[in-house]
Every structure is written in C-alpha cells, then in structure tokens.
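Our preliminary data section would be incomplete without showing what the modeling component actually yields. Below, a chain of 439 amino acids is followed by its predicted structure, encoded as tokens that our downstream tools consume directly.
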Amino acid sequence: MDRLTEDDDETTHLTAPFAEHPTGDREAWLRYAAVESFDRWLQLSLDQMLVEAERATVQMAVAETLPLDSVNRKSLIEQALGRARLASPGVTRYLQRLMSGGARPPAVLENAIRPLIVGYGALAKEVRDPRTGLSELDSALTAVQKTWHEFSEWPWSEGRAEPGACADMNPVAGAGRDLLDPRLFPARLLSLGCDPDAPEIQIVPAGDGHVHVRVQAFRPAGERSFDDELLSMRLVDHDGREVSCGVLHRPALQRFEADGASAFTGELPLMGSPLDAVRVEVYDEAAGAPPGSGNDREALRRVRKAVFFLGSWRKLVADTLIQPTRFSLTERLNGIVSALCLGREQSADPDLPLWVGGPVKSELQELVRLGDNRLRSLLRKDADLEGVSEGAAVVLRSTVGPGALLVVNWRQRLRGRAVTPTEEGRKLGRATGRDRRRL
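Predicted structure:
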C-alpha cells in the first residue's frame, strides 16, 4: 500500500482514497475520500444521480464520526441532505427499472444497493422542524425508502435476471492534434482516448487568422444536460506562454446519436502565430485547476495512463463480478496492459512503475498469467492471495474496503417499461441537469 500513498504532485489526486484522515473513524473517512476521488476522476458512463446519492450517504457516515456540536458535522449533513434530495428521483427510477425486468437482479447488485438505502434512512432521521426541533418527514428521502420497500416485496419471477453490460469507458479515437489534460476539467465532460499519446483536441484553420477548435463530448446513455458555465481554452506557444484565450461552447440538451457526434466547439485567434507553433489547452476555471501543466508532456502522459487504468480496471472488476463467465478476463486485462504500454513503454523496464505510485508492468502481467479461473476467484474473494506478489496484491485489493466499487458501477442495461411510479415519485417530478459544483 505504500506505493499508492507516495507523494507526487502529478497523481496525488488519484491516490487520495488511500490517504489517512486524522479525524474520526478511519474507514468512513477513507471511503469518503475514495468516493469523492472517483466522482472527480472516473472516466466511465455513470448515472450521476446514483453517484450523488452515494456521495450523500458517505458524507453522512463521516458526519456521524464528529461530535454532535461540531460545525463541520452540521455542514456535512446539510450538504448530504441537499445531494440526497437531488438524487432521490434518480434512485427511485433506478429501482423501478430493476423491478420492471420481472426477474430479481443479481445478488451482487442488490447487496451493493442496500447500504445506499441505509444511508438514506440515516439522513431522514436528521430532518427536523426548525421551530420545534422535532423530526419530520422529508418526501424526497422517504420516497427512496418506500420504493426500496416495494422492491423488497416485489413479486419476482423465478431465478435471477441476466445482467447486462456495466459502465462503459466511452473512449474516443485519437483523431485530434493536441492532448486533453484530465487534471484541468471534471471527469465525464470530454471524451478521453485510451492511448496516452493519441490527441483528442481537433484544430482546423477557420479563416481571418482564427482556428476552429472541436472536442468530442463525453457521451452518456440517453439524454444529458450540461451546466450553464463554459469550458475555457487558450492557445499557448512551445514555451507555455499564452497567445490567446476563448471559450468552448457546450452542446445543448439533446439526445446523443450513436456515433457520439456532439462536441464542444469554439474559435481562437492565432494573433499572427504559425499554427505549428502553438497548441490548445482546454480547462475548467470552476474546477480551480490552473492551465499550463501540459508543458511537461511526460507528466501529462503519466496522468492520462493513471486515469485510463483507474476506469478500465474498475470496469473490468465490475464486469467480472456481475457477469463472470461472459468474457475472457485475462484477455481483457492483457488489452489494458497493452494500451498502457504503447509506444516507448513497450521496451521500458517492466519493473518500473507505469506512473508514480502506480503498478508496474510485470505486476499486471503476473495477474494475466494467473489465468481466468484463478484471477476470477481472487476478485470474487473466493481464494486467498497465497503466491501473489505484494505489488499484484495491491492492485487486487484496490477495489475492496474504502476503494470498493461505487453502486453505480453495477448499473445494468435493462429492457422493458418502467413500473408505475409511486405517489411520492410523481410529487417529486423529474430531476434534470447535472451540477455537482453548486452543492
């Protein structure tokens, strides 16, 4: 575990889940750090409502470790209540979709949802009448609990439902000119490629000394809305000096086509600079990350590899646990290793970390050599780690304990109409948009 906590400015944010919090219950705080980190960095097609629900419940868990009169406790609970209410319609609809399938969902999915419901129950107990201080009902929170009760009592057909695919990586082919830096904007806004050297930012001359910039938007399943704010961009020269700046316009609310054609677009003036002497940086000012880090290309490549592995490994684990016999586990893992070791890494020392604090190539290859059955048993915790090196064991343990998979990682693609919403669900109406930063 020591390697995962190594202090390094490039990837500290990716190893935050493994840093010890000095206050309160260690496991609760580690899980809180993990969920916040996964929300920020997981480049997977995730239902943001379920992510917000889990963020709310882990916030409540850490609040309960603080003294009753703590200002931080009160602040955490207020934030958790806001998130839980926002996410309530999404959670109830998700449970209703599961019920509409007829057959009971896989046990691993049901077990993953249960702690979320417990968290909603704890939050509901915190709602009090400001005048009397007595507990009162909150329709948004109780809607989740009542829908879960319906779920528990549902007249399921015989057997368990066949699982669908889990969350997608949503990669984009490297058809651009410049690289995206995932440190400069939240996950699941822009599509990142799997190849650390494959650029995504497309730049073409637009006439009148301007260039047209296009970056493919991250394509979720179904409809998606974006915040009102704009992403920023700037032209910089080879020394990192700013040439010009502008904004990338977000796609309007729309249904994404199968080819994922929606994109962020904008124009920048060249200010007399040759096109081959400048590059484009895309960043989100609201995220607080300063532009300019792309000058160190090697550091950028390492971060891009870390983000790719974080998503692809967790997707592989989720797929293995929910549909264990539908694919070759080692073939998938070998594909991940190949993607991480493209180009110059092919001949690099196999015992050097792929990024600071990350696994080494030989450890991932060790996992491949274990074979499908042995590796699947280890991921399902049906076998001990005897004979597995410490480095490979660290990778295997990264999805248990505080780093356990998010509830949303178990998302299934289910067919069929949704069941009739409960009365509470109708009162709540539809949840629209996705704005994590305003909470």
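Residues 1-24, 221-228, 253-258, 413-439 have pLDDT under 50 and may be disordered. The two ends are 33 Å apart (CA to CA). Preliminary results of this kind motivate Aim 1 of the renewal.
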